[in-house]
Amino acid sequence: MKTLKTYAILYLVFLYAPIFLLPLFAFNTSTIIAFPLTGFTTEWFTALLDITEMHSALFNSLKIAVTSAVLATIFGIFGAMASTRYHFPGQKGIMGFIMLPLVLPEIIVAVSLLVVILKLGLSTGSWSVIAGHTLICTPFAIAILNSAFAALDPSLEEAAYDLGETRASTFRRVTLPLVMPGIVSALLISFTISMDEFIIAFFLTGADPTLPVYLFSMLRFPKLLPAVMALGTILVVLSILLITIAEIFRRRGAKRAGLKDTGGFL
Amino acid sequence: MTIKAKPERKPLISLQNIQKHYGEYHALRGINLEIGEGEFFSLLGPSGCGKTTLLRTIAGFEDIDSGSVMLAGKDMMGVPANKRPTNMVFQSYAIFPHLTVAENVAFGLRKSPLSKAEKAEAAEAALNMVGLSGYGNRAAHALSGGQRQRVALARALVLKPKVLLLDEPLSALDRKMREQMQVELIKLQREVGITFILVTHDQEEALVMSDRIAVMFEGEIAQCDDPEVLYRRPKTSAWRILLA
Amino acid sequence: MLVSPTALYALLLLAVPLIAIVVISFLTQTGVRDFAPGPSLVNYKEALSDPLYRELMLRSLMVSGSVTVVTVLLAFPIAYFVSFGVKPEQKSLWIFLITIPFWTSYLIRVFLWKVILGYNGVLNSGLKLVGIIDEPLTFILYNVNAVIITLAHAYAPFAILPIFVALEKIDRSYLEASRDLGESRTMTFLRVTLPLAAPGVVAAVLIVFIPTIGDYVTPKLVGGPGGTMIANMIQTQFLRLNNAPLGATLAVLAMLIVAVIAIVFLIVGYRAAGGGKKGGRG
Prior knowledge:
Main location (chain A): membrane
Keywords (chain A): Cell membrane, Membrane, Transmembrane, Transmembrane helix, Transport
CATH class of chain C: Mainly Alpha
Pfam families (chain A): BPD_transp_1 (PF00528)
Radius of gyration of chain C: 23 Å
Number of strands of chain C: 2
Oligomer: heterotrimer
Largest sheet of chain C: 2 strands, antiparallel
Subcellular location (chain A): Cell membrane
Family (chain A): Belongs to the binding-protein-dependent transport system permease family. CysTW subfamily.
Largest interface: A-C, 87 and 87 residues
Low-confidence stretches of chain C: 276-282
CATH architecture of chain A: Orthogonal Bundle
């Protein structure tokens, strides 16, 4: 087990190594991303403030991410409630299909949506990116909300009903508060996925790029590389922050329901 | 089967020829029963005999195929569970984990015309009755099994139902707790004075606590009598069940 | 029915487009948005006969296959460690730490590998600085090797999780029983743990193999001309050559091949796990 532990630590180092390079070189004075380090500077970060196209790309991404997260979570609530509470014909098949985007290569999703949009004579835009992102985030939302709803003792809702509540007020007073951590978690995860997503945005974006798409265009200019490192640092820190918050909420929800922790949205 | 006779009490619940199927499965095969006011009544039988189904039918959580359920002279057909004068203590107790003990107990009082202070008083009185006075501010998820059960009782009783339904309330407790709670339930029922209907598979429990017991088997009532009569002069079918 | 909004959305945005792709593969494109009427097999003929596409497909399969093997092999010990070597209250922390990189931007991570493996990149400059090499290594960027390394890094968590779940499900008393009956630790692992973990390994293989075949970003950024994969060609057909039907055809063929391989593997894996007869509490 000792050797395994060493292996595990080395593995983690390997996993995180590239990411640690980001802050390392984002504060480095050299324009070339290589050793040795030349000096400390924050100029790349301040340079980011001047790139206005990046700002609009960022704003676009935020808009898309918030919308996709909300839609995906709503779809996720419906899907999770249906799959944990009821049994209907073809349940496995339908749920399996809804979860399909988890294993499909994203390019297939992107390309097929593009085909439909072209065929319908429509033009791409933020709406098409939102549509695509919602599609791939919903399975994640369902997975998270499935465990949130499954952890809910069904007799809790029956008890509320027995004590005089209606179905609607039962949902509001009992169900919703108890799955709220799961909802928050699903929102944060979907938001993060959408913010980081590249391929679908690349294919389906209109005139205004999303941040990852803009980032991709920056990669062609060697002079911009340090700025890319700076931007990358910010994005990675934000992602990690959001995911940590999501995890805290998930744990809090599980604790409230009095469950043991099984380790994630599995 | 003939209607089971009721004792000197006024009949409160009248079940006539209740039939229920779950798909192919015949869960309740013609239940005829009258339960009186203030009676401590038990439904006893092995798992799968239909006792919980019958309880839930009275509560309004299960529909019936045919027959009638009358509560206090009113037909309960079409009356949903949240509008019936019954309240239930669930097998898992179903204490809301996101609320305090006091909030749990006062949960059903939301729609009542009482003032906030009156509701708090009523909740505290109910907690007192079950021996948990002062527990109001505790977080619900930090309670022991026995404490949870008492909160469930308080929560149901504070609404002053005409009938209290208990679904295997003692099965999750250890032996010592169980014996203690048996005594407390009897005391409670006498104090509150309303009808208790208890579902159990434990014959000792039923014999100790009940005024009358209905022994059920495969969807039917095999025998319905006082504990004494049941113990000394059981009908053959009921004897088989009691021995099991 | 509660599931209807979600199901409807999936139907409209997943089923319909997938069907559309199949349909389009049988058409020919004449203008930017014009399609010649009538189905034809022209695209399929071209896709199947032109050696370029065949080579791309084979390369994609080879890359995916290598990535899958490497990733799953490296992942198993980690999953085993977290399941058997970590205290229960720390397990979810480990899993959390392992999955965090997955939640950061994929594009950035691939770009970072480009930066690492470059001629004047981090690895080379670092090794030069320390004195291990004099000349920069050239075999690590802008070819298939770079693609494999980058993909293996990106998909590592994908492989670890299913194996971990499967290992967690194994009732520990099975292992104790095996030891009690006289088996050594190694033999217990081979005869009990591994077969019971097989479903997790199968899942890990599929979860890595299927998406990596269709990866676009990695081959584009670090693959160079010799490291492009089928997704890059699909994109080229769609967005640069205005030949959506051919792109669609390639996509359909790629999906079919992957589906066949996946099904075959599932059957093999199912048999290896004992056909569910001596499964865990799965």
